[in-house]
User: What shape does this take?
Amino acid sequence: MKSDVLLSVRDLRIAFDGVEAVRGVSFDVRPREVFAVVGESGAGKSLTARALLGMLPSGATASGTIRPDLSAQRGRRIALVPQDALSALSPVHPVGDQLAAAVRSVAGVSRKEARARAVAALDRVGIPDAARKARAFPHEYSGGMRQRAVIAMATVNEPDVVVADEPTTALDEEHRDLVLRLLGERREAVGAALVLVTHDMDVVRDHADRVLVMYAGRVTELGPADEVLARPRAPYTAGLLASLPGNVPAGRHLPTLPGTPPAPGALPPGCAFAPRCPLAADACHETEPEPQQVEGRLIACHRWADVPHPFQETQRATS
Assistant: This one.
């Protein structure tokens, strides 16, 4: 593994009853970077992220390699910020006790020292009167404070990698920005890489260093976020970007990707995106494209060279 790579994933496959939901995904995560994983629901992005933590659902089988394997050191070298903060916290223990237990699980410190670290962690994420609130139960916290608490929980032991699985879903813009700011601050403070699972391309634009775009369990496009967003080379990536309100001129219809993603057990022949793609040719319906290095990024598309910019023109012409 290269010295500038913190985590290396190769040919990751995740299946349920023999049906693959993640199909041959490979990527690297570098120190201190924000690595975003995006795609529609069912793309396999959350499964991919949870494989890093060794937290796959019951019934899932995985193959491929993840190096180093940090799952046995969950909480110390790799940690999770889940989507649902309330379900991540035990309802029957004070929040401070839960953070202190996380500290003691990886550090040989006294209960007093663990408690002090827990209070300090709550204070760092902006929970007011942290010593008092450490004695409160999760249901006594507001939704925003619970989000802060799970960020404190994930970063209290200064892990190498923080995985945030859709941490801003269902949050308004103010709370979304707060969560992302806190994640950024803690990432910088502890020197961790952040793997950010999201469906929000605006979040990617504002926060990511590199982005992995997934569709039907595979890599569609992977590269520097600013380059991918400025000039997408995969039609699926371009379609996601074209549907953002900020990318559509005033007075014009907001384009959407037609159709829906296929179920893992019902993939079409060839490229899984071909039935929805306005650029699809015969080869796209016959042969699944393999990821290839193009212009400093990884792309799995037969028609990458023909993706226009802006992509809206092609969508309007084929709608």
Observations:
- The radius of gyration is 21 Å.
- Residues 313-319 have pLDDT under 50 and may be disordered.
